[in-house]
Design brief:
Helix content is about 50%, strand content about 5%. It is built from 3 helices and 2 strands. Strand 1, helix 2 and strand 2 form a beta-alpha-beta unit. It starts with 5 loop residues before the first helix and ends in a 6-residue tail after the last helix.
Amino acid sequence: MEIPSRRDEIAASLSAVRQRLARAIERAGRLPSSVRLVAVSKTRPAGDVRAAFAAVQAGFGGDGARRALGSIAAPPETP
């Protein structure tokens, strides 16, 4: 059995959150365009932020938003 990479774990988690959010939006009778998923990156390492960005997470917020944007542009971490 292959061990999923951190990038795969983050992509899978984001997918699950998006699915739950879509169901909640539908139950509430809201338009999908009226809801925005914002990832809080304050305590996450730069590699996690880059992985979320690669998984098409564009909205980042919280106190660490500015740091997160710098993390996305930062060179990749070496193992």
